[in-house]
Structures are given as structure tokens and as C-alpha cells.
Design brief:
Blueprint lengths: L4 H4 L3 H5 L5 H11 L3 H21 L7 H11 L13 H7 L3 H16 L3 H21 L5 E6 L5 E7 L4 E7 L8 E9 L4 E6 L7 E4 L4 E10 L12 E4 L2
Length: 241
């Protein structure tokens, strides 16, 4: 498959989460040496992916390593002589979802050997979230929008027009204080803000859907539980248009 120069500019997200085939990776890495904008985009997307990993990380259950190894020892492996035909449609996503697959395996082993419903639900949720993040970051039209608050806090929005979604992630936000929460808003040409959800923590990533007509994403500090209208001034605002 021949990859054009225009195609290469769309591969920053997939490259950042290791979701390219060998042919695409080779072509894109050659492209990176002469395209500064793509190099910057890859660096920022990789940093965002790392922050998302930290945001959903959790300490593994006790004895998980021993259980995983025990389960692996009892699992029948494919014969090295088995005929396997690679599916190019699956290969593209293999690298991006590798970490998620490891989490899924951990969930399976934990469910099988512990029977702790609370722990099972937590691990299953982590696996689902990590898989969704990896898949979203590898969307071909994913682009980054950055914002900065006067207090030094920063925000990153990964925007995908094809999915009509954005993923918002904040860094260095101060503690909102007792009885207060951070709330996201989307604002269109009519300047009317619409709530896009609360941050469950200062580092929790938030998916924002329905971006058609949205020109700006803003973050405000509100009473716990959120508000119907934003409390001004906004902590930070990021233009999307």
C-alpha cells in the first residue's frame, strides 16, 4: 500500500500509541525528520497518552503476578507451525491496544481467582477506560488544543471531528476546596454555555461529545454537584474552532 504525503500528516495519533504497521511506521518516521509540525504533534500526543495512563492507573491486587503466571502456565499455546494469515485491518490496532489487552488479561485472572466483586468492577473499568483512550488517540484526525490558566495549570483537549468528540485532560489544577468541583462547558457561536460534565478529580480525563458548532471549551469552579450556568471568570478556556 502506497502512503502519500497527505496521508502521513494524519498518522501522528496512531504513531504516538504504536498503532502503525511496519510499512506505515517506516514511512512516517522518514516523514518526521522533515516535518516539524508532525514531530511536535507526536511529542504532545505521546505525553497525553502517558498522562492518561497515570490517570487510570491503580495498584495491582496482592498476589496478582503469581496468579497471572499460574494461569499462563495452564493455558495452551498455539503451535509455532500453525498457519496464521495476518489480517491487515487488525494489525493496525494491535500496538495501540496491547496495554489494554494486558489489563483485560489481569481482569480475567483476578475474576477467576479472587471473586472480589468490588475489585473486579474496578479492574474492568480501568481496562475499558484504557482501551477507549488508546483507540481515541489513534483516530487519524485527532488534533491537540492546549490551554493555560493564570495560576499555571494547563489543559489539553484531543479533538476528533470524525467522532464528534474531544478528550479533556488537566494538569496542575489547584485543589477546588471543600464543597467545590471543576466543571467543563462547551460554547458555540451563540455564546451560550452548555455543561459538558464534572471532573471527578483534578487529573481525571473527561470525554466531551457533540462538538458540532462548538467553538470553545471552558473550565470553571462550581459548587459540588455542578451548576446550570458557569461561575465566571473561567479557570481556563480553549478555542476549538
Amino acid at each position: 500500500m502506497r502512503t502519500t504525503s497527505a496521508d502521513l500528516h494524519t498518522l501522528t495519533g496512531a504513531y504516538a500509541v504504536n498503532a502503525l504497521s511496519e510499512i506505515e511506521r517506516t514511512a512516517f518516521e522518514a516523514h518526521l525528520t522533515r516535518c516539524q509540525s508532525c514531530a511536535i504533534e507526536v511529542t504532545e500526543l505521546a505525553a497525553t497518552a502517558a498522562r492518561l495512563g497515570v490517570a487510570v492507573e491503580a495498584p495491582p491486587p496482592p498476589q496478582l503476578r503469581a496468579r497471572v503466571l499460574a494461569a499462563a502456565a495452564e493455558t495452551r499455546q498455539l503451535s509455532p507451525h500453525a498457519d496464521r494469515v495476518p489480517d491487515p485491518r487488525r494489525k493496525r490496532w494491535a500496538g495501540a491496544l496491547l496495554a489494554a489487552a494486558c489489563l483485560v488479561a489481569a481482569v480475567f485472572v483476578t475474576v477467576q481467582y479472587t471473586g472480589s466483586s468490588d475489585q473486579d468492577r474496578q479492574l474492568a473499568q480501568l481496562s475499558s477506560e484504557y482501551s477507549r483512550f488508546s483507540d481515541f488517540l489513534s483516530t487519524p484526525d485527532a488534533r491537540l488544543v492546549n490551554g493555560k490558566a493564570p495560576n499555571g495549570a494547563t489543559g489539553t483537549a484531543v479533538v476528533s471531528a470524525s467522532r464528534d468528540e474531544a478528550l479533556f485532560l488537566a494538569k496542575d489544577l489547584p485543589d477546588p476546596g471543600d464543597g467545590r468541583s471543576y466543571q467543563l462547558w462547551t460554547i458555540g457561536a451563540d455564546k451560550v454555555p452548555h455543561s459538558a460534565g464534572l471532573l471527578t478529580s483534578r487529573t481525571a480525563p473527561v470525554f466531551v461529545s457533540g462538538l458540532t458548532g462548538v467553538q470553545e471549551v471552558a473550565l470553571t469552579l462550581e459548587p459540588a454537584g455542578g451548576s446550570t450556568t458557569p461561575t465566571l471568570p473561567a479557570v481556563m478556556a480553549m478555542p476549538l474552532a
